[in-house]
Design brief:
It is found in: Cell outer membrane. This protein is mainly alpha-helical and 533 residues long. The protein contains 19 helices and six strands. α7 runs parallel beside α13.
Amino acid sequence: MKKIIVSIIAFSLFSASCSDFIEKEQRGKQTLENYFQTVQECENYANELTQRLLLAKEWWVLTAPRVTNEMSTDDAWMGNTGQDNSAHRPCSQYIITPDNMGDMNGIYTAHYYTIQSANIGLEKMAMSPITETQKNQYMGESLFVRAYCYYELVNLFGGVPLYTKSLGTSDLTLERSSAADVYAQIEADLKDAAAKLESAPVARDGRINKWAAYALLARVSLFQEKWAEAKTYANKVITEGPFQLEADFLNIWNVNNHNGVESILEAQSSSVQNRDLGAALPTLAGARGEDKKNFPSNDAADVLDGWGWCMPTSDLENAYLSENDVIRRRSTITKWGEAAYGDEVLNPTHKFSLNDNKSGRICRKYYIPIATRRSLDKKDGHLPLNIPLIRLAEMYLTRAEANYHTGGDALADINVIRARVKLDPKTGISGPTLLRQIYKERRLELAFEGLRLFDIRREKDPTTGRPVIESLMGPNGTFVQYNLSSTDPYETTNLREPQDKGINFNPAKHLMWPIPQLEIDLSGNVIKQNPGY
């Protein structure tokens, strides 16, 4: 594991709720020995950990790798065909090697830096003179952050070095733990976090609470095929938590509906003009090559002009069309020349550069409405789009899949999700057909929300018993074959991103990414590489 230099966190002035800015008096020279003496100091530290996890100051550290993972699935192309794609190409085209990781190096290093910082904070907060109630809140939040870091690491790389105490200079190399051991620590941290956060307020926008811990427990239980536990935790969030499904699906990603009734955990954003506190995702994945002449106003203020990465595939669009799923399709995908859903008056024919766009499509979930664009003097770094990371609909789908495997009523849960988007209920299906429908509902509901790669790696094809990704990718994969025979007028016209996306997938190694070679070298080869790399 990369040598970690122990240092004090650069304490953020930005509250996790974006509601105000904290000014604190400097108490002489601050070190790890005299910090954590006040509630404000402990809160600042927990806020900084949360910000690192959910809204990294540098977009390329976490946002870019998470978007690259989307590009590695059947949902998204790299998309931008006019610029250097070396950061995204290794994963997206399955040519990744330990020495050519693209931007996947960043998420590995960033999470271990955050884990080390969380370990320091937990040790110091435990000895802080603040009250037990206050300790519980900030330690609970820190435990969740550590658990989430390990959750992403184990799903991206498999078993990784595991440690829960701050490292000193004599502890700089650790062997990899098994994936089972990493998951066990994630579960322990989340259970501890939920217990510590039991009496912490839930309505504080942007703060981690016990329901986020229970919801992530439901997710990691599902990923381990612990069906009973997945059902228990998902059911707890659904029946006991203060959440409800948004009546309008489009409202989940609404710039004017931050932390809505369905949201369990969101990365916070703000358009405050003297700080770069906005979301990077709408820029990174926004339409490239917008022009004021394509808007009714003919006003440059309406132009955002994103970078054009992570463009939806026609295969994903076809999945919506096969269900006549108009609401979720238009809330997820905008095709070139089509009105931006919910913004039809000000953007009736959203057009952008087809020369720079592989698929002629953009992700509607990441879209910034025209009225919001006009209100901003500064756009890049100031876009007020919160990013939902866990929401209630996922819990219904988790319970549905768990019910399928435990003999419960899986249909009822997917039909709740379908009813919200005005689709008829599914009836009379069971066995493999039902399981495939559950998988499909997850894809349609949660597209571009960070779960597709993890899902197709873990979901089992009910016919073969093999991971679903193996039936999609590789020379004979259905997704690869679809693209090779596609007649889509956008994707097949712009061939600067190859049409054989996924053809290099090898199930012997690509169910996880390699460990960065740099980390292996710095460990003195104590860390061993994943098979096949």
